[in-house]
Sequence to fold (618 residues):
Amino acid sequence: MKKTFARKALGRAALRDVVPGEIVVVEPEYCLSSENASASYRVLKTIGVSKVKNPERIVVAFDHTVPAATIAYAASQKEARRFISEQGILHAYDINCFGGICHQIMCQEGYAAPGRIIVGADSHVCTSGAVGAFATGIGRTEVAGVWATGSLWLSVPESMKITVTGKFRSGVSAKDLILKIIGDVGASGANYLCVEFHGSGITNMSIDERMTLCNMGVEMGAKTAVCKPDEKTVAFLKDKIKPGYCELLWADDGADYVKELVYHLEDITPGVAKPSQVDNYAPVTDVEGVKIDQAFLGSCTNGRLEDLRVAAKFLKGKQAKVRTIVTPASCEIYEKAMQEGILQILLRAGCTINPPGCGACFGGSGGLLANEEVCISTSNRNFKGRMGDPGSLVYLASPMTVACSAVEGRISDPRKYVKEESAL
Amino acid sequence: MNILREGRVWKYGDDVNTDVIFPGCYVYELMSEKKMGTHALEGLGGAFNKEAKPGDIIIAGKNWGCGSSREQAVKCLKARGIGAIIAGSFSRIYYRNCINEGLPVVICPEAAEKIGDKSEVEIDFGQGVIRSGHLELHFPPYTEYVAQIVQRGGLVPFIRRQDRDSEGNETEGCNRTDVHPFENETADTKFSMA
Fold:
């Protein structure tokens, strides 16, 4: 019987053969929280458990409200710190030189690895599929349940196969591909499914690019999204992988899928998600010239070194016409960007560099929008009110599109700049 | 024990996301469930936030609760006394959060098409029936253990109950390695929605 990745990963964890629709009880290798661990901690106390089952399997990374912009945020963080110290959580990332956005930390620090089951109290936990993990989001109460019992139930999902071939043309990136896919599939088109990314196009991508793809799987409703683990995955994890099960699991050829799609990267062009739905896709040429008030480069989708590097190429020696917020996804990325001179280029171009975190993306702090303001953003959601006032508008786009739009003060097509560059 | 719900309908369309159900600026504050209720559907605008009454029922199109995993988007509705949510489909994490918070949910695309705003509806979860006027719609009942979680008021009381012995005395709790709330489930239990 040919099996999908989901059947193999959940079957391994359940110690038996499993089929879609079936319920399995599994013990995740790692369970992730942000500072919302404070809310799960309250639930843990309500359950009446004094000691978590597997403290070594718990990861906590402060990212949504750091550093605290309000007293209420500070109070929540204080509770999360109390949990960490009381329960002896070693895999804890507070505000220091090690931290960053929790999904970045999961990959960067080697918690996520091929075949592992990862759960966590955030919808973008699926980012870890980039290195071959079965990673899915749950609520805060359920995280407390995992802390208490060490396990949770999951249903075995059906799967969708997306085959990607070829290489991106200049000015086009993984963000343009995933926005196009979400536009085609729809915001609920992959609901409950495991999305598998296959093909030479994926093999050609870096781990950073694969993270961008898998990160946005949830924006089409996917339970998880995963790329085939390969030599790049192994090389990426070699010196950083944390203890636990790891196996290069992948789907069999000829496994059953509810839907199969094929994309050729040569056909992908720069695109955006127009306000206020992630599946509201348009080629950038349809919205070129739309005036913007802010550009945002960052988030768990596109705050990585490659993203900052490419933005710096566009902004080097120029001046952003609108306020431009840059948030590296982790301290490690921040430091490397500093060493490469990227941050200096961005600063001189007029960008504001935020500490690593999620603030601007979810409208928490560090770059909110006023009524009727327009932002072009590398983040993952453009819902009404997502980045501030309900009357503000957000366009989602790639780091290249965001950088060249910042230069022009209006939405623009990065291919124009790539041509100029190659003509020089 | 059967679950029955009866109430007035608030009708919504497709893809209502958690940012408009419970805005992000409140998500990372620790607050009481009652206070969460004061922000319910605040981001969407409309009369719900001021006028929703205990017992009211939400009927929505497809993909209700898409977006973030924030469970306040469930808790805020529960705090306002919303009796149940019927939708054409739910986003997966939202659906799971509803089960874990003990808020009954129904997947019924036909209800989303045929039942209008401010209608009166009755839901019988045991029989899997929605009634509104002359309309009678059927939906598959919960699998047994999901029904148990909902009936016990959510995951927390469900786990707590697993920690009591047959006389109802508290045992050593969840640190026991042999205990899991779902250990009695059979391998062929079907539940494809979470």
